[in-house]
Amino acid sequence: MGAARDLRARLAEPRPLILDGATGTELERRGVDCALPLWSARALLECPERVAEIHADYVEAGAGLLTANTFRTQRRTLERAGLGAEAARLTALAVELAREAARAAGRPVFVAGSAPPLEDCFRPERVPDDAALRREHAEHAGHLAAAGVDAILIETMNSAREAVAAARAARRAGLPAVVCFACGEGARLLSGEPLRDALAAVGAEAPAAVGVNCLPPSRVPACLEVLAEQALPFAVYANAGRGETCSPADLLACARTWVAAGARLVGGCCGTTPAHLRRLVSGLNRRA
């Protein structure tokens, strides 16, 4: 309950909370093999020191929330590489790497565990059945809780059905959730569902915040009105590497419009770097 109170209290402050930037694409940029099926989880096995470096660089840039590299530490993904039994251990390792960087910050820095779709973030037709969603998100949330995260960042959700399952798992694990959707054109999820309906559906699970992520900056404006009209704090962290160019200066310019619209959490997703976050923090004149 302490983490939930702390995060909710922080989101009630007038200054926005700055999330970190990308992990997977940043590992690739630094020459790390992120081949499927493990994607970013491969680094936990082969070069955890690179993950630690990225977290430290985001702390130095001024991020107030680090996302542990748990994007692909669910059993479903690991089983494809014969590593299903390592889910809890690799999740705990990922969280500890982020926690070490947070402890070294000399200021409060939250650590969130990533909880993405169980299948492909950009293929809503591959969302598993309800029983699998319930079972597998509960296991991942349990691993994150045992590892000691402050919150669960349920991100890049492409369907309301899976987002609700993940948010329910976080709530039952006793952790605050930030639930973010990947949207296409016109404030619609990649499944075609209206963002407004998806926000209402996850709202029943009492998340600490909702939002959108891993969409191009050009698609954010259509989502802002929908996000601003609902009562929960909201997050926006767009990508910089899926069909659009987004320099550090571009991200800052966009983030200023997100904050002006009421965003309480801002940051970067795929393609963003510590340089993006450094410009974001200094430009917003915030350090957390």
| Chain-averaged pLDDT | 95
Q: End-to-end span in angstroms?
A: 22 Å
* pLDDT < 50 stretches: none
Which structural class best describes the helix and strand composition? alpha/beta
**Number of DSSP helical runs:** 12
Oligomerization state: single chain
What is the C-level CATH assignment? Answer: Alpha Beta
Helix proportion of residues, in percent?
40-55%
Commentary on this structure:
45% of the residues lie in helices and 13% in strands. Strands 1-8-7-6-5-4-3-2 form an eight-stranded parallel sheet. The mean pLDDT is 95. By secondary structure, the protein is an alpha/beta fold. The chain has one domain: TIM Barrel (Alpha-Beta Barrel).
